[in-house]
Design goal:
154 residues, mainly alpha, 3 helices
């Protein structure tokens, strides 16, 4: 299903030739003469620039070139996707583990609040603070454990 390097080169060459023909045709239609940059040790503009005879571009050849270009783009996308897939998997695992670690740190932070307010758990002045700390500790502990669990399953 993959593309042979020789096929890729042929298709790229055909596409470049068609693009060159289109560019030359547009320059000829506009009536402008192409100017060439001066090379080392040459005159600024050659008096008679070389003329190339290229066949005219037909709508069918443009469609064929577009189809080839689409095929090449799709093949390149598949190749790049195949190359990056392992990095994406490792990156996803690393992301889950890092977020699990930070959720665990927050859970420990709120667990300290539970420990400090443990004597007021029933009806003391810090009762609501204790309940909020319990809820947040449970939430962040759940998020931490689920992140590590999902990383383990992958």
């Amino acid at each position: 299903m993959g593309m042979n390097p020789n096929e890729f080169g042929k298709k790229l060459g055909i596409g470049l030739r068609v693009a060159g023909r289109i560019a030359q045709q547009r320059v000829q239609e506009s009536g402008a003469t192409p100017s060439y940059p001066p090379g080392p040790g040459s005159a600024p503009n050659p008096p008679n620039p070389p003329r190339y005879s290229m066949p005219s571009v037909t709508p069918q050849s443009v469609k064929q070139a577009a189809a080839r270009s689409h095929t090449i783009t799709r093949a390149a996308g598949r190749g790049i996707g195949g190359f990056l897939r392992p990095f994406g998997k490792v990156g996803g695992l690393l992301w889950l583990e890092v977020t699990g670690f930070f959720f665990g740190v927050f859970a420990l932070f709120f667990a300290q609040s539970i420990w400090r307010a443990r004597l007021d758990y029933a009806s003391g002045p810090q009762h609501t603070r204790f309940l909020i700390a319990v809820a947040l500790t449970a939430l962040f502990a759940y998020l931490s454990i689920s992140a590590f669990w999902r990383a383990r399953r992958r």
